[in-house]
Automatic annotation (TrEMBL):
SUPFAM superfamilies: Calcium-dependent phosphotriesterase. It comes from Talaromyces amestolkiae. This is SMP-30/Gluconolactonase/LRE-like region domain-containing protein.
Length: 393
């Protein structure tokens, strides 16, 4: 009788563990299949080139304001020595350069050259400018409000600015409004706007590399659902976790009621139905053959997913870059060179996935892609890349 009970409990335990084990086995298989020596380059673009390589780098996120034909980039050269998500921490905090936001007027006809289309946004009245390390950004056009995830030296938070780029002859200005801090948003990664006072914020980890590196590593590689999506109401000061997602990364609205969230640890994008009280209920998922980073949706309703086919290569490059910078006494420019694969795919509501681009060299650690379908321009940003990849289809 005891043996029967033990066997039954063992079968039950295996049945409960099977989905988790199958998921982790799939991810491990992807890491094997996506090894650099097996990687196949793909380029479906009619034209593509890297621009602004000598001006900006390490651009983690971006957004495209189609109505105004402009894009905003969130870039941080300091990521080479300060990356709170991946675990890069220089011992000398005084040497960390701060990040910036840049505005790209890609349709501007009267610019004398392409370089003139890119300007750095002035951060006005912002007390934390010198410790600004931006990741995910979002823009609410009706109120001209810009939201930025900031992984500052003294803790992560969300910064809110009033953005003015109406006069193309003047430097765009983001005027500081307020800072949002909550224990629920331990590591804010990406933001999507629901209304003028409501947000969803993805928080990628519960255990943070800067405080608990071992537990953060376990959380990442076991795909534990300790990160998630937090609902934020700026009027009522409400913060509420509405979904648990392993390594919750990019987030965007597919339509008025459906939210897409990138789960980097599980190599998948999950779909959630939004209820009237802003709670989320998972309704589906699409498995990918790479680890997704950020998401964006174009005006045709097509989801662009960009990410990392082989994270170990990206991590190796990160470690080598930090070591080179710490050991360099002459500011060796080669320290910020490197290679890490990138993949860009599109997903449409009919469930089809199409690979648009895959590379090991042109853009390093690609993490975000944007597309203006009317103007026929696309942009891919690299977590550790120089410049941005501009493409046409």
């Amino acid at each position: 009788m005891v043996s029967v009970i033990r066997i039954s409990l063992s079968i039950l335990a295996l049945a409960l563990l099977y989905p988790f084990l199958a998921e982790r086995a799939r991810v491990v298989r992807l890491l094997v299949d996506n090894a650099p020596h097996k990687f196949t380059a793909v380029n479906t673009f009619a034209a593509s080139s890297v621009k602004f390589a000598d001006r900006i780098r390490n651009c983690e996120d971006g957004l495209m304001i189609d109505e105004d034909h402009v894009a905003i980039f969130s870039c941080d050269p300091g990521r080479d020595v300060w990356n709170t998500v991946m675990g890069t921490f220089t011992p000398d905090l005084s040497t960390i350069p701060h990040g910036n936001l840049h505005l790209y007027r890609y349709s501007q006809k009267d610019a004398s050259d392409e370089e003139a289309k890119l300007t750095t946004i002035e951060l006005r009245d912002f007390p934390g400018a010198k410790e600004f390390h931006p990741l995910g950004i979002e823009y609410h056009r009706p109120t001209s409000t810009l939201y930025v995830c900031n992984h500052g030296l003294n803790g992560s938070r969300i910064e809110i600015f009033a953005l003015d780029f109406s006069d193309s002859s003047k430097t765009p200005v983001a005027t500081y409004q307020r800072t949002i801090i909550s224990p629920l948003i331990r590591s804010p990664n990406a933001i999507t706007v629901l209304s003028e006072h409501e947000l969803y914020v993805s928080s990628d980890h519960y255990f943070l590399k800067r405080y608990n590196p071992v537990l953060a590593w376990i959380e990442t590689y076991l795909g534990l659902p300790l990160g998630g999506v937090v609902y934020v109401n700026l009027l009522t000061n409400e913060f509420r976790t509405v979904a648990r997602v392993p390594f919750s990364n990019g987030i965007t609205l597919l339509n008025e009621t459906t939210v897409a969230v990138a789960s980097t640890s599980t190599a998948a994008v999950r779909f959630y139905e939004m209820s009237l009280d802003r709670s989320l209920q998972q309704t589906g998922a699409v498995n990918l053959d790479f680890m997704p980073d950020n998401l964006s949706i174009d005006k045709d309703g097509v989801l662009l997913i960009t990410g990392h086919p082989h994270p170990p290569t990206l991590d190796k490059m990160r470690v080598e870059r930090l070591g080179c910078l710490l050991n360099s006494t002459v500011g060796n420019p080669d320290c910020v060179d490197g290679k890490a694969p990138t993949k860009v795919v599109e997903w449409s509501a009919d469930g089809n996935i199409k690979t648009l681009y895959a590379t090991t060299s042109e853009i390093v650690g690609g993490c975000t892609s944007l597309r203006d379908t009317v103007y026929n321009i696309g942009i891919t940003l690299g977590l550790y890349g120089k410049g941005v990849l501009i493409w046409n289809q």
